[in-house]
């Protein structure tokens, strides 16, 4: 059967063995030659060694133009002891936090014990929430009839009406000016007017009786752009 490749942890152990057995300093290219003798292929050596450096299991330093790697059993022991102390501290911190949460949970449970009175209160709360949601939906149906929204629409209509009539007035003024200054082009001008929609029935717009013209509209009619 085909031989199974080494896992990352197994490769790390094999590379550490190289350091521990020799207790020497190595260049990366030297480690890449020694790795295959331990079953770690050359292409994996660099990544494996770097993972050991990241975990402080292997030391790394640049001396001159070369980068050396080394690791001694005592260094690994110190590192493991440091990790152990850190994990022990984290464990104690987690236990303390757990105790605090249990205490908070016990405090919150007081007054919330299951009872007929509590069940009735929860049922009443649920009914109120349901009624609230129904009223909220009903209010949404009347949003278009909101007096404030209706008033805003009236004002918007007044402004639009005033603007339309203001431009109508401008068109009449321009049309008169063209007639006075180019009487010889009367037919051409009439043809142009018809093409753009200025026909004989072109006139000022009347505001519906339901939207009386307010001071906004009157004010807008006074000026021209």
From TrEMBL:
Record domain Leucine zipper with capping helix: where: 149-205
Family to which this protein belongs: Belongs to the MND1 family.
Annotated keywords: Coiled coil, DNA recombination, Meiosis, Nucleus
Domain spans labelled Mnd1 HTH: 15-73
One cellular-component annotation, GO: nucleus
Coiled coil: 84-145
Originating species: Actinidia chinensis var. chinensis
Protein name as it appears in the record: Meiotic nuclear division protein 1 homolog
GO biological process, one term: reciprocal meiotic recombination
Record's signal peptide: none
């Amino acid at each position: 059967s085909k031989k199974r490749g080494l896992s990352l942890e197994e490769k790390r152990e094999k590379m550490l063995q190289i350091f521990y057995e020799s207790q020497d300093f190595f260049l990366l290219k030297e480690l890449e030659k020694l790795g295959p003798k331990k079953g770690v292929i050359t292409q994996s050596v660099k990544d494996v060694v770097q993972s050991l450096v990241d975990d402080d299991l292997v030391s790394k330093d640049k001396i001159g133009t070369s980068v050396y790697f080394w690791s001694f059993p005592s260094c690994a022991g110190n590192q493991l002891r440091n990790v152990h102390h850190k994990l022990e501290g984290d464990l104690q911190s987690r236990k303390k936090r757990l105790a605090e949460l249990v205490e908070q949970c016990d405090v919150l449970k007081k007054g919330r014990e299951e009872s007929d009175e509590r069940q009735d209160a929860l049922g009443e709360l649920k009914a109120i929430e349901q009624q609230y949601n129904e009223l909220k939906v009903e209010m949404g149906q009347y949003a278009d009839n909101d007096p404030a929204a209706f008033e805003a629409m009236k004002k918007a209509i007044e402004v639009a009406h005033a603007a339309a009539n203001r431009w109508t007035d401008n068109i009449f003024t321009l049309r008169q000016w063209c007639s006075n200054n180019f009487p010889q082009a009367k037919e051409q001008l009439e043809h142009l007017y018809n093409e753009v929609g200025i026909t004989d029935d072109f006139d000022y717009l009347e505001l519906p009786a339901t939207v009386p013209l307010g001071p906004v509209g009157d004010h807008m009619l006074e000026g021209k752009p």
